[in-house]
Each structure stands twice: as C-alpha cells, then as structure tokens.
Design a protein that fits this description.
One of its GO terms (cellular component) is extracellular space. The protein has one domain: Gamma-fibrinogen Carboxyl Terminal Fragment, domain 2, CATH 4.10.530.10. Helix content is about 0%, strand content about 5%. It contains no helices and 2 strands. It has a two-stranded antiparallel ribbon.
Length: about 90
Amino acid sequence: MNNNQPFTTVDRDNDRRQTKNCAQYKHFGGWWHRDCGFLALNGLYGLTDGHSKGLYWLYQQKAKSLSGTTVTYNINPAVVIMMIRPL
C-alpha cells in the first residue's frame, strides 16, 4: 500500500514533492505521500470549504462513464497502532 514510501507528517516531510509538504498541504494529514494526490484519509474531518480539504479519497483510472455508480473503499486492518511522539 505504501509502495516503500516513508510516512510523512506535518513536521517530517518525506514525500517526493519538492515545493511543499503534502501532510500540511490542504490539511491532508500524515500518510505515505509520494506526491500531493487525491488522498486524505487522515485529513481534517467535518465541514470544509471544498472537496480538496478534509477526509476524502479519489480513485483515478482510465476514463469511463461511472454515472449512477457508487464507489466504496474499505480499510479493514488486522491491527492498528497509534504512535504519539512528544513535541
């Protein structure tokens, strides 16, 4: 899933984007960002000023009509570990 990409946080920029930190950009939150794409599963939750902020996921594939189609993405991890680093 992470394609050997290190985890990026707002204070540790490990993504490949040279001009910005993807975890800070549009409040995406920490993730295995390679580039600032269309994934923000750890982004701000709740009302936002547009679809590019907050919790969202966009799957891109070859162009085809998805009219009337619902896309669902489920993550069912066997284990979840929350690691908190002191400031």
